[in-house]
Write a structure and sequence with these properties.
The complex is a heterodimer. By secondary structure, chain A is mainly alpha-helical. Chain A has 3 helices and no strands. Helix content of chain A is 80%, strand content 0%. Chain A is elongated and about 55 Å long. Chain B has one domain. Chain B has 4 helices and 2 strands; from the N terminus they run αββααα. Chain B is elongated and about 80 Å long. The chains are: A mainly alpha, B mainly alpha. The interface between A and B is medium-sized, with 24 and 23 residues.
């Protein structure tokens, strides 16, 4: 159920969606930006622990990381733009 | 004996056409601006994530013998191309809408002809396209250079030639409008 606040603010479900996407984006950037920059040993050890060749693993991880980052941030922007458009249409 | 022809009546622009242009332009603008905003932000995010986060960690990795940074560059370039193509389609719609609104606002009330709207469209399209393509080139330049340094130079030369043509057609469209206004003003003065 979507809870619409009386003051015309964003519904609770929308805020949950944005929060969830922000968490996914933050985790993705934490893994692919903070970990290789500040703790490169931990980043490399994580890939060495798995049985597959490191390059293949890293390639797959980088592709999926980029896709997740772009998709999650685009969906956040999409939700915000749709909300903004709705507000402008209602007030205009 | 030849009969004197009656003077040609000037087609009176209808109020309906004026209202139609106004309403359609406003609707189109409301639809396209959020879409442009979304695609521009996505393009910027793809560039930023790619360049600052994923390209540095891809350094030194080979995928089936191919260097991963070049593959990533190619993927980012294709994504940006798709996004810019979509942005250009929306920008065209938005510019047409702005031209319609400008024709309604700048001209006398209810005195808007399809020709006038066409001139404004050409002028606005020319100027906005040059700005958008120049900005898009800034997004592409590094990726093109990473693939081959010559690609960037060829693209820049092409953009410069095309931009000159666009600006020339925009100026021509504006000068036609100025001519029209000037001749109308001259008629009133006489």
């Amino acid at each position: 159920m979507q809870l619409e606040p009386k003051d015309g603010g964003a519904p609770v479900r929308l805020l949950t969606k944005i929060a969830l996407l922000c968490v996914i984006l933050a985790a993705d950037l934490l893994f692919f930006f903070v970990l290789p920059t500040y703790f490169p040993e931990i980043f490399d050890t994580m890939f060495q622990m798995t049985p597959w060749p490191d390059d293949a693993e890293k390639t797959f991880a980088i592709f999926s990381g980029l896709a997740i980052a772009v998709l999650s941030s685009s969906v956040i922007v999409y939700i915000l733009v749709q909300r903004f458009r709705k507000t402008v249409t209602i007030r205009g | 004996m030849t009969e004197k022809k009656p003077p040609e009546e000037k087609a009176v622009p209808s109020k309906e056409y004026y209202e139609k242009v106004r309403i359609k332009s406003r609707e189109a603008l409301l639809k396209t601006i959020p879409s442009i905003l979304l695609y521009v932000i996505t393009a910027v995010l793809v560039t930023l994530f790619g360049r600052l986060v994923f390209l540095p960690i891809a350094g030194g990795i080979n995928w089936y013998g191919y260097p991963l940074p070049e593959i990533l560059n190619f993927i980012i370039l294709v994504t940006l191309l798709a996004l810019v193509a979509r942005i250009l389609v929306d920008v065209r719609r938005a510019v047409d809408a702005i031209a319609g609104i400008a024709a309604c606002e700048i001209g006398a009330p209810y005195d808007v002809s399809p020709e006038e709207v066409g001139h404004y469209k050409t002028a606005f399209r020319g100027i906005v396209y040059v700005i958008v393509v120049s900005l898009a080139f800034l997004l592409f330049a590094d990726h093109l250079t990473n693939i081959s340094p010559g690609l960037s130079a060829v693209a820049l030369i092409g953009i410069v030639v095309w931009a000159i043509y666009q600006i020339w057609s925009a100026v021509r469209a504006v000068s036609k409008e100025i001519n029209r206004y000037a001749s109308e003003w001259a008629k009133k003065v006489r």
